[in-house]
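Please, structure for the following, as tokens.
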Amino acid sequence: MRTQMVFGVLAALAAFAASAAPANATEAVPDPSMQREFGAKLLVCNTCHGDRGVPKSANIPVIWGQQENYLVKQLHDFETPDRNVEVMAWMSKTLTPAELAPSAGNFAKKTWPAKAAGGTATPAPRGIAVCQACHQQNYLGAVQAEGVTTPRLAGQNYEYLVESMRRFADGERTNNTDMVQIMKGIPAADREAMARYLSSL
């Protein structure tokens, strides 16, 4: 039901934006805070990702405060089989190429949602150092020497992390070849321990 509602809203917004777009839309960088149609598209994201940055379901990632260039890449990748998520494929196609970077920037500038008080610290599992090589010692992500931006893992949802790791390991997600190779070499139990630790930070 929610998926159908999201698709319906996205289709309506896409049609409205297409008819309302000015001829010189490619000349200026779109601004969701100034352009009503663009802002409305991004409001649809709250349906799943939450209006305060806390996703409606634990298998949906936190995107508020995430690395901007990482978000841009994911929006591009949702249009390909590398990231096969039906709702996100629809959403990414409602955005014009010029709107992709401003959309990512909009969410990257927001504050990562605070964790609920009273959580217990999870001990660091074996093999977690492999994550630090790219995602930084504090797991907040960074731009690598090759220009690739790694995402923040600290405080990300456990269910989302463990499923992403599994998808990389099983070759279902291929938009980062390094992650495919790394996750293939880590047993499922260790991946689950890593995800639990990272989500507790």
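Residues 2-108 form a domain with the Cytochrome Bc1 Complex; Chain D, domain 2 fold (CATH 1.10.760.10). The radius of gyration is 18 Å.
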